[in-house]
């Protein structure tokens, strides 16, 4: 009988981890594995298994799992403990409504403080997106583009909430973008938004961001209603 592969076997740990770095190393390692799909949705992450894997006590593992739960990459259930959270599903509209509120405020705060360096960084991400055919990379670059525009917002708690939403979208795009056929959809929006940001036209920038995110939720909602999408998500 063939044994079912264990997701934790996909995680490689290099040598002993210094005690003062344990929590951050565990958090970043698990975060990367969740985002790239090595730890699929619904995977239970047990503290002792992780402590054995990383060669540490359960305390830094517990702290790392709390951080990932705060980022909405994990959810805690009664019987399984920490479980890799599901991707965007039927609540896509509500998710994007919240993103519009948070990202609009982050962009409003950030625009007056952005420099040419951030403008060029964002433009570079657009150029990479135009040339990119790897769907995993498209999700990552999309997140980096948006965060480049929001990065100077002084409210750090707001920025963490914004990045949590972008992380969730990145995970969804990694697994669904090819089936959705969205690879080249966003670049006109991105370029127009960046131009408004460079001109420090806050009302136009916010209107374009809202239009961009609303277009995204329409496409995702339509996709999730298709039999093919329902089959993919049921299988996960």
UniProtKB/TrEMBL annotation:
Signal peptide residue numbers: none
GO molecular function: DNA binding; DNA-binding transcription factor activity
Keywords of the record: DNA-binding, Transcription, Transcription regulation
Domain of life: Bacteria
Residue span(s) of domain HTH gntR-type: 20-87
Organism: Pseudomonas atacamensis
Protein name: GntR family transcriptional regulator
